[in-house]
Design brief:
single chain; alpha+beta; eight-stranded antiparallel beta sheet
Length: 251
């Protein structure tokens, strides 16, 4: 019988390592997302460096502020204040954008009408999928997308209960083990642009918030993060027990 050559053994070993690495990445990578829709040129799945550079284009005088799981830009110009925040997936995933929010407020010196905002949004995203008038001056408008980025003309009205902001803690610690019915629907299919209009009168806005979020994408990343957190916590407990077993008193 021939003994395998060292070179052949090394090649086989490297192949096995490559397969293991690929399998591990496949378990944690949330997968690609389409580059449209975008908000201010930033889209879910965009690498952080590219997204941060895109956001910095909004101001030549104010720097983007960077955190562990997000980065933001606050423009405090009283004539046109705005706040933009970009949320990122966390390790063991390769970090990427999963949600973008933009908020603007208005005064008598810098008014914006509901018609002006909705016209701009429809020019960017097309005819909205759903509308939900909350009363008391509040209005939510939704553009909901298929996983490939195609805009839906109709969707389940229950999706108007989905809010990307409610997922922020889940992105850090992992999704709930037993999501309720609304959460299940949101996690499964809420890839959307939502405009929340706070009307200061019959025609003018007091403020608005526009949010672009891909919750199915965020869920995959959050699941990997939660699993990694749980594994680390379990290992920490095992280490403590092992250390405790070695700490025998003398009698």
């Amino acid at each position: 019988m021939k003994t395998p050559s060292l070179a052949r053994v090394l090649v086989v070993g490297l192949c096995l390592v490559s397969i293991d690495v690929a399998a591990a990445r496949a378990q944690t990578a949330p997968g690609p997302t389409p580059q449209r829709p975008d908000l201010l040129g930033i889209y879910p799945g965009m690498p952080p460096a590219a997204a941060r550079a895109q956001l910095q284009k909004r101001s030549s005088t104010i720097n983007v502020m960077t955190g562990i799981s997000d980065f933001s830009l606050s423009i405090t110009d009283p004539t046109s204040p705005e706040a933009i925040k970009v949320y990122l997936t966390l390790p063991p995933n390769d970090q990427a954008v999963w949600m973008i929010q933009r908020t603007q407020t208005f005064t008598a010196q810098n008014p914006m009408s509901q018609n002006a905002l909705l016209t701009a949004l429809r020019e960017k995203y097309g005819k909205e999928t759903l509308t939900n008038d909350r009363g008391g001056g509040g209005l939510n408008v939704y553009w909901i997308y298929e996983p490939n980025g195609k805009l839906l003309s109709t969707a389940d009205m229950a999706l108007t209960g989905c809010k990307g902001i409610n997922f922020i803690n889940y992105a850090r610690i992992g999704p709930p083990r037993q999501p309720n019915t609304l959460e299940q629907n949101c996690f499964r299919s809420f890839f959307a642009v939502t405009a929340t209009l706070n009307r200061g009168g019959p025609e003018l806005l007091g403020s608005y918030n526009v949010e672009l979020v891909n919750l199915p994408y965020a869920l995959k990343a959050a699941t990997a993060t939660g699993n990694a957190n749980n594994a680390a916590a379990d290992q920490g407990r095992r280490n403590q027990i092992e250390k405790g077993d070695q700490n025998k008193p003398k009698f």
